Amino acid sequence: MVEKMNARNDAAETAFDLDDAVIVALGCNDKGAWSSCIEALEAGLARFRAEGVDVLARSSWWSSQAWPDPTDPPFLNGVAIVSTAQDAPTLMRTLARIEDVCGRVRTTRNAPRTLDLDLIAYGRLSGDLDGLILPHPRAAQRLFVMGPLAELAPEWRHPLCGRMARDLADAAEVGRDAFPLRRA
Known about the structure:
Strands 3, 4, 5, 6, 7 and 10 form a 6-stranded antiparallel sheet that branches. A two-stranded antiparallel sheet has the order 1-2. A two-stranded antiparallel ribbon has the order 8-9. By secondary structure, it is α+β, with helices and mostly antiparallel strands. The chain is globular and about 35 Å long. Strand 8 (about 125-130) and strand 9 form a beta hairpin. Helix 3 runs antiparallel to helix 4. About 25% of the residues lie in helices and about 25% in strands.
């Protein structure tokens, strides 16, 4: 099935095959050196092309309480559908390098972070690739991932359960407070 880009990505009426979709989730709840979390996320996205990753489509930014600790600063999240010649493990290393360049400091698990990039899906690939588990094992349960993905590709099907992104967003149990920011 082919899904066209949404209006936010109307520069070219490029289409992509959802069965081959490479999906990256982005998150931020520590603006770091930037003036805002939006600026930090945009800086992360801007690095993709230099790292051999082309953004085909991207969602709006979504706001939600921090998870699992709602006393941490709130998060902004989004999803990008990308194209790359890199295999999944190489892409994951690339995403970690982009996080580092953008100032991510790894302290404790789930601590506030300047940039969090997760590989959600790499086409229909599934399984454990030397510690990289695809599709992302918890993404389907998170509205702050499935909501933005459903915004881009509502008919994308999860490689394991076969449910569509829009249905996973409706059923998501984590981050139920997530909502898209208004576009400028």
